[in-house]
Design brief:
Residues 1-28 form the signal peptide. The chain crosses the membrane at residues 209-230. Keywords: Leucine-rich repeat, Membrane, Repeat, Signal, Transmembrane, Transmembrane helix. This protein is of the alpha/beta class. The chain has 2 domains: 34-195, Leucine-rich repeat, LRR (right-handed beta-alpha superhelix) (Alpha-Beta Horseshoe); 197-235. The protein has 4 helices and 10 strands, in the order H-E-E-E-E-E-E-E-E-E-H-E-H-H. The longest helix is centred in the C-terminal third of the chain and has 48 residues, at 199-246. Bound molecules: 2-acetamido-2-deoxy-beta-D-glucopyranose (NAG) (2 copies).
Length: 264
């Protein structure tokens, strides 16, 4: 009886292992057949097309094997720090891209190149973005979620705003975390909704003061040099003058001028 139980147990373990590997193999084949990005989870539907979910995978780089017919990509809750140039260039049917809850502090120029004609929604919320880079969004008309980022509101950001191609309402998500100059009181405000604040005026004022200081410095230097020069040459000049006066007045004008030129 115990022998039979033992036999059964041993074989069930083997069976189990076999079954397990069979399941794994099926899974792998399935994986290859539907061509999904490694470790990501893909679904496909008639109406919505292909969706690739790579959420919460501790990714530090954007996967390069996302199928080119994907319509939705979820890369949220990863550890991405940057979006390189042409990161999604092959995905010509992409409608929605979720990059929220990452560590993004930088978007390289042309980061979303190639998505301009199809992309409708871009989620960049809850990242570490501090400054706006219009070159990153070139040609992109999508609605973007830019909230929950530590935006640094300064003259650069103000000048960048009108150059960003995104759907204009997206820019209301740029809420100032810090500002330059510091005491202007825009922290916590959506920068776009505070139109009477001009951060570049402050900047210009600072530049003007700097210019004045520099000019004053120059002026002082020139004056001091002149004073020094005059002082140093005063003695010489006086001696020279006396010499000229002591010349006999009956000597001809031509000789006098030739003496001067010799002295000079
Ligand atoms: C996707 O890539 C394959 C070859 O890798 C190509 O045949 C196909 O046309 C591409 N599809 C799109 C939508 O770009
Ligand atoms: C933007 O993202 C934040 C958090 O990531 C979310 O709470 C908010 O609803 C989003 N806004 C829009 C307009 O989708």
């Amino acid at each position: 009886m115990s022998l039979l139980a033992d036999w059964l147990l041993r074989h069930s373990v083997v069976m189990c292992l076999l079954l397990h590997s069979l399941v794994l193999m099926t899974f792998c084949f399935h994986h290859a057949a539907t061509s999904c990005s490694k470790n990501c989870y893909c679904t496909e539907s008639e109406s919505g097309g292909k969706t690739v979910r790579c959420s919460n995978l501790q990714l530090t780089e954007i996967p390069q094997d996302i199928p080119n017919d994907t319509r939705r990509v979820y890369l949220d809750f990863n550890l991405l720090t940057t979006v390189p140039t042409n990161a999604f260039a092959g995905l010509t049917q992409l409608v929605e891209l979720d990059l929220s809850h990452n560590e993004l502090s930088e978007l390289e120029p042309g980061a979303f190149r190639g998505l301009g004609s199809t992309l409708q929604f871009l989620d960049l919320s809850s990242n570490k973005l501090g400054n706006l880079t219009p070159d990153a969004f070139e040609g992109l008309r999508a609605r973007a979620n830019l909230t929950n980022n530590p935006w640094h509101c300064n003259c650069n950001l103000q000048m960048a705003m009108p150059r960003v191609d995104l759907e204009p309402a997206s820019l209301t998500g740029v809420v100032c975390h810090t500002s330059e100059p510091e005491k202007i009181g825009v922290e916590g405000l959506a920068f776009l909704l505070a139109p009477d604040i001009d951060l570049c005026v402050e900047m210009k004022r600072t530049t003007d003061v700097a210019m004045l200081v520099v000019m004053f410095g120059w002026f002082t230097m020139v004056i001091s040099y002149l004073v020094y020069y005059v002082r140093a040459n005063q003695e010489d000049a006086r001696r020279h003058l006396e010499y000229l006066k002591s010349l006999p007045s009956r000597q001809g004008k031509s000789e006098e001028s030739s003496t001067i030129s010799t002295v000079v």
